[in-house]
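Entry 14. Two folds queued back to back today. First construct below, sequence then structure tokens.
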Amino acid sequence: MESLRDLGLSSYEDRAYRALLALGTGTAAAVAEESGVPKGRIYDALGGLESRGLVRVQTDREPKRYAPVESAVAVDRLVEAKRRELNRRIETYESGKGELIDRLADAETADDEFWTAAVGADDSLELLFERIDAAEESIVVVATDVSAQFDVDREGPELLDRLLAAIRSGVDVSVLISPSVFDDARAAVDEDRATLTIAQGPFELRITEDAYGNFYLIDGEEVCLEVADPLSPDRLFGMLDLRDRGFAARVNDGFEAAWADGRIVDEV
């Protein structure tokens, strides 16, 4: 911060307060002369400072004299006032966001086809987590291998937390994984968290050897598809997010067939 204006003071209030710091005490006329604030505006400036608790006023003599509170006290009071203001604004935003979401949802039109992509492990995870957080009805997770770029110990629990948050909001979550991925996940996620997840509804976990690749089916109409590096298949090249209902239906048909033959996991 460069001046008290960053904390809400007007230019005239800032100049008047600095003038009082230089003077120690002074009349309105003295402050106006020291600060360069027009005499017709100095009383407004001093009144603003007084209302904020930044000056003390001696009223038992004419003309009135003004004295500044210590600069540390003034900054603390302005910061606290700004904090209260920001908290009120945050509360207003929080209380109104549901209505805004509903209005935006009413204006949405469904695109039959749309795709976007992220390249690299970090951007791919960011895209995936965004789409998981956006799910409203269902999430299907199919994972048969783990990219060498992913730190399962770090990213596995984070993915699980995202899925748990979706479950708590009423989203159906179905996870179909290979035996090797199941072993990796079990080693990365603590037993209590894994047990809690399996006990959650609506959540179901199955193991299969009949699926291939890694993908996420969101709300039955959007597919997040991991793309392997063609020169190094054990490394992730990127993530494709395809919003194509026809393609999503084909993916879902393949998932349902593998899901039906998968082994149900009901305990860790």
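Second construct, same run, same settings:
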Amino acid sequence: MVEIKTDAQMDAMREAGRVVARALAAARDAAGVGVSLLDLDTAAHEVLRAAGASSPFLGYHPDFAPVPFPAVACVSVNDAIVHGVPDGYRLRDGDLVSVDFGAVLDGWAGDSAISFTVGRARGEDVRLISTAYEALEAGIAAATVGNRIGDIAHAIGKVCRGAGYGIPEDFGGHGIGREMHEDPGVPNEGRPGRGMVLRHGMVLAIEPMLIADGTDGYYPAPDGWTLRTVTGVRAAHTEHTVAITDSGPRILTLV
């Protein structure tokens, strides 16, 4: 069931989104050659604590995972697409990093993700990341009252496929509100004019994931969480929590 939020509830989600945005900025600021992934998680966690918010990631245990998620941030490096578990790996010059983060404040959730490079960026990584943000912007632009879920999916897929990138099968965005994952699902590829009609008060996490060589496959790492590209190429992940309003899409996960 899709929960329609009131304007006041969307305002409350905006405050949770601010916490998410600040935590992601802190993680990015902390990143550098020689910095561990655990350090990035710690930087984000400090923002969470200071805001009096809680983490929807820490302890999250879906059916597919062998253990609860052990951190507040997913940190995925290079060929890791999503759900990377922060560990003692120390960032190297040229690494591509994606950080996915959520927060719950006063009972409402926010969810967002960023991708960036550390040190000297490779040209192909800059293009991959730039396209991921372009796909996110296209998806958000399609998130208007009267459009359908398929219009968002088509907008994202058109950008990704048009640039020659792959899209991980069966992964995409989702509704969000009192819970991190709610209905409806928001695919990263689809046909326009199909799916649920978008209404004022719907809130969606829109999150393109791109694979550099145009393939769509992935496999789970031994930790049971991290998803890696089958061919070992790099991936990028971007995301915003977006409210559907009569005045247009409202991004809730900005500072």
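Quick look at the second one. DSSP finds four helices and 13 strands in the chain. The longest helix spans residues 7-30.
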